[in-house]
Fold:
Amino acid sequence: KNRYHQKDAEQEERERRHKFCPLSMDIAARQFPRLPDKQRQGPPDLAIKMKNTVQQIMPKGSQCAVHMRLLPALAAIGTGKHGPAVQASPVSPKTGLAAVRLYRAGQQRARCHSAQCVHITAHGGNIAAWTGLVTDFAFFRALCYLTKMPDFPPPDQLIAEMGQRARTAAAALALCPTAQKAQALKAAAAQLRADAAQILAANAQDMAAGAALGLSSAMLDRLKLDEGRIEAIAAGVDAVAQLPDPVGQVIDETHRPNGLKMSRVRVPLGVIGIIYESRPNVTADAAALCLASGNAAVLRGGSEAVYSNRAIFAAFQTGLKAAGLPVDAVQLVPTQDRAAVGAMLAAHGLIDIIIPRGGKALVARVQQEARVPVLAHLDGINHSYVDKAADVDKATSIIANAKMRRTGVCGATETVLIDRAFTQPAKIVAALLEAGCAVRGTPDIQALEPRVTPAEPEDWDTEYLDAICAVTLVDGVAGAMAHIAAHGSHHTDAIITEDAATAEAFLAGVDSAIVMWNASTQFADGGEFGLGAEIGIATGRLHARGPVALEGLTTYKWVVRGTGQIRP
Structure:
């Protein structure tokens, strides 16, 4: 019984030998319809392509595990020479996921230790037996290319080794001169520009996989890189190199009556673990900010951007070497095994602080499991409030930009609040609709425009990250602040008004990391704040708040200078 629920040393060694490598993939169940028997074999040319792909990409004797959503009805699809090629037990009601394992031709099927498992086995020429399950070769290729990964030690051992190297590098960085850190950053920025073609090629692989996996348009927008975005990433790294070095800054200083001089001096946090999803620019932003603030970084990116992250990471390794700094100052977790995230969260004494950047599920897991301090970046349920004293044209322009400039960024407005006394609410709603935004509104908003669909209670608590917006009328600034207090995420909230007193009341009364007056919430970005880049928007109250950049990645120590004083 225990062999089905508890891995012993022999089983773990077997998995390590077989290069077991779980990857996180979220695939809609509708992509896997149960096909009639006569359709299961699939086109012969597709079978040949799949066979060649498996043999080309998967090393002999290797396997991978992929989490995907499957229909509970998938009980047994296809038959291979060595028995059922696909076996499916019910999908987990908790996660909606089932595990999938692909095996290279000739690989023996291992015993399944999970109650929720699907086996797909490729046995030489019998690959055609299960090609009916995946009828799109582009998707199959996207699934397979992610398996080309080296053999890694168990996650706990891997993170422990990376953590030890990071601590050694952090000790050296803490004493590193500002000029040397700036040299490394400038070299990394130059390498990013030089490697633009390789980075774009890597990103194209990630984009193809994301499209095949059915990622939303907002997720794909976050994932996508082009020449302009690569230049913006490189420019951000250059900008960080030009910022004042916070390490060694004297925060304040006092002189005691007994002659002691006491000062608070900024020092690095140490080793920072960053866990993030989909956005490859985070690799560059996090690496640059950690390096400039004297911290070592352990980065764990999402599987959606695995190749883009590696290409960007390679540029930073070049920069560190060029400046003579330890390459372990910036490390990228090489495996997509989710157990590596758990190992990072438990790395007390090796990692000093964890910073998650991603969806609600990721942040919730980090906060629940972490045994090290967490600097959380929560949902961006941002509000823009149009006051009765707002300029109509200004309000219309700001709202359209706040929602639609880029819908997939955390600074996008998700809910628009309009004062009942505002004279032209229909113009605001029409501007959103004309920009391609779906508007969900209360009955009074629906009465303004027939294209508005009814808002459900959950709409007021949703970060859409898409071209969708919830709109309602409120009773003045007090009503707006009450709504934000009930439904906001303490990220970014804005007021649009020409009444200074009302604006000041809003700015003082809304408890968010960023509050704005007559400006688009899309300015919620470290670069726009003059910080060069950001590692996230911290929505809590400890240890930093708002865009977290260099200063937010430091702490302080007391330095006491005396002339021989003793305490009576």
Remarks:
- The chain has a mean pLDDT of 78.
